[in-house]
Design brief:
Blueprint lengths: L3 E2 L15 E5 L4 E6 L6 E5 L4 E6 L3 E6 L5 E6 L5 E5 L4 E5 L5 E5 L1 E2 L2 E2 L6 E3 L5 E5 L20 E5 L10 E2 L9 E6 L5 E6 L4 E7 L5 E8 L14 E3 L5 E5 L2 E5 L5 E6 L6 E5 L5 E6 L2 E6 L14
């Protein structure tokens, strides 16, 4: 497949004919790719299948956990504990190296969260996650009544204790379905996309961790004749933003100018940096797992320093 250049600077990110390699297929709906910095394998979710899998160059695709509580977004903290957004339990859970599960958050103002979806960790240890309703829908989760009445973005402070309520960090009603989120280099900004509204917002982060001075970063990430909307999202070391959209992954510069599209044969749900020098983009695309080599590195996240 030929990748689509919208701006000449796209050539510094990827070759127009860079190979998109299929690493595995036959899944139901893949999500949440995450590269382990020391053991060099990729974890990823298959929500409808209620299983978490791992891929490595030597072992191929193997099961890592079944059931998985229909886990979706994944990340590591500084200690390489696995953080999981669980659709079936409406929880953010933490798994230690021994596999022991600990529930970090399930409620806000006494009501059960919708279904935590995607997650990232700030350098100070704060955990941010989105809470749309997809995990209460047939196929992607467990159908059940909603309790919240809105879809928000939340934070767990560095001193958060299991069972404490999450901190709502955005205005109620701002988002239709908040989904992917990621920090800009330097962590002065947090990007949050909205699947329903097909846009991305950029926020400054206040001293208490709340999101302030929000602005529209990009919009119109949807087309009538091509499937795909904002879902997974990442940033590279240069500050360029990568988001799922029609045809694959759309790439924007830090000012919100579209640079181009990385093309995939299936609808893309999420992505993560990994491999040697963090220049391989591992991509979960509906029934398959793919990899493509870029010319840039991923933004250095807290857990990457372990590698």
């Amino acid at each position: 497949m030929t990748h689509v250049e919208s701006d000449p600077r796209f050539a510094a990110i990827i070759d127009p004919d860079a190979e998109v390699k299929q690493l595995g297929t036959g899944f139901i709906f893949t999500e949440g790719p995450l590269w382990h910095p020391t053991e060099h394998y990729l974890l990823f979710s298959d929500m409808p299948g209620d299983v978490r899998r791992r891929w490595s160059a030597g072992g191929g695709v193997e099961e890592a956990a079944r059931p998985s509580n229909k886990g979706n977004g994944l990340t590591y903290d500084a200690a390489l504990n696995l953080l999981v957004c669980e659709h079936a339990t409406s929880a953010v859970a933490r798994f230690g190296p021994d596999g022991q599960r600990e529930v970090l958050a399930t409620h806000f103002e006494g009501r059960e969260l919708n279904s935590p979806n995607d997650i990232c960790v700030q350098a100070d240890g704060s955990i941010y996650f989105t809470d749309p309703v997809f995990g209460r829908m047939e196929h992607y989760g467990v159908p059940r009544p909603l309790e919240m009445g809105f879809q928000g973005v939340y934070r767990l402070a560095p001193d958060h204790r299991p069972g404490d309520e999450a901190q709502l960090v955005c205005d109620r009603g701002l988002f239709g379905q908040p989904n992917g989120l990621c920090f800009a280099p330097g962590e002065q900004l947090l990007y949050v996309n909205d699947t329903e509204h097909a846009n991305i917002r950029a926020f400054e982060i206040a001293a208490d961790g709340s999101l302030v001075n929000g602005r529209l970063f990009a919009e119109g990430i949807a087309e009538d004749n091509r499937g795909g909307r904002p879902d997974g999202m990442k940033v590279d070391a240069e500050g360029n933003l990568y988001v799922t959209g029609p045809g694959g992954i759309w790439v924007y510069d830090p000012a919100g100018t579209k640079l181009g599209e990385i093309a995939f044969p299936e609808g893309v749900a999420n992505m993560h940096w990994g491999g040697e020098n963090w220049q391989t983009l591992y991509v979960c695309a509906t029934t398959s797992l793919y990899a493509v080599t870029l010319k840039v590195r991923g933004r250095a996240e807290l857990f990457m320093a372990a590698g």
